[in-house]
Every structure is written in C-alpha cells, then in structure tokens.
Amino acid sequence: MGIGTVLQEAELEQFFETFQRQLEGKLKEQIIKDNPVFEDFQKTYRGLQKLQRDFQSMLQWAAEDQRGKEEERRFWGLYRQVAGWNASQLMDGLKKTGYACKRDPDLKGTFDRQGYRILELVRAGKRDEVFYSILRIFVSAKKDFPPLLAEAFKPIYSDELFKVLLFSFLSGVLGKEEDE
What we know:
This protein is an all-alpha fold. It contains seven helices and no strands. The protein is flat and about 55 Å long. The chain starts with a helix and ends in a 6-residue tail after the last helix. It has a domain at about 80-175. It has helices at about 5-30, 40-65, 70-105, 105-125, 125-140, 145-150, 160-175.
C-alpha cells in the first residue's frame, strides 16, 4: 500500500464522516425540535439510493478494469454484494409500484387484460416488447412511466435479474395485495 493510497483512504474516511455528521445533524435537529419534515427524509432516502446505484456502477467499472490482476476476485465479490442489495431494494420497490398501478382504475383494467401476455413476454426474455407493452399502457392512460420501473430495463441488469424484477412488478399488479 503506497502513501497515495493511505492519503486517499484518510480523505475518503473524512469525507464520509463529514457527510454523515451533516446528514444526521439536519435530520436529528428536525426530530429534536419535534418538527420532522417528511419531504426532507424522503429526499435523503432517494439521494442515498442514487448514491448506492452510482457506487454500484463505479464498482462494476473498477472490477472490469481489474481483469487478470490480483484484485479482480475481491472487486467482483464486493460488486456482487452491492448489486444483490440494490436488486433486493429494487424488487421491493417494483412490487409496491405494481400495487400502486393496481389501485389506479385507469391502469388496472388494461393490466388485467394484458398482464398475462406481458408475463409471457418477460418469461421469453423479450425486453423490448415488454417495455413497449408496458409503456403503451401508461401512455394510453396518460400516466407517467414510473422511474423505478424504467430502472429495471437498464442493460446493466442480466436477463435473469431483469425477469425477476419484472415478475416482482407484475406480481404487484396481477396478484393479491398484501398488508404491510
């Protein structure tokens, strides 16, 4: 480990400690003053999710850059750990998005009629047709396409993970809603 690595590690540690103190300070202050602002907590959560996804992308890039090098296995191990956590979060979010679509009368009927056809397209791995079918439902209902659902179509996800993510969404739309 060279001197540059030690300095960078100390800088990173200091950066995260400062970030954590500032984040906790603002949110704790609201709690202490008995005036927590939901939007601030929601923005913080979304920001942390974006940071986690961006970190996953950078980690994948770093792991790919290590091909044939000593650290390759360690980088890919960490990448799988981070990607698994992100995928789990995404699956939960997509199921909730599916439940929300089921509660929307403009979307429910169309998903009831076309949901099983879309399920079959997902099983067959036809990403482009799945995207088109779901997008058409949202456009015809004059609804915004959920950003979380768009995330599932990104090419960074393997075909197998894509199927799991879309099955999570469709289980919310087509299945029985569970009490949380």
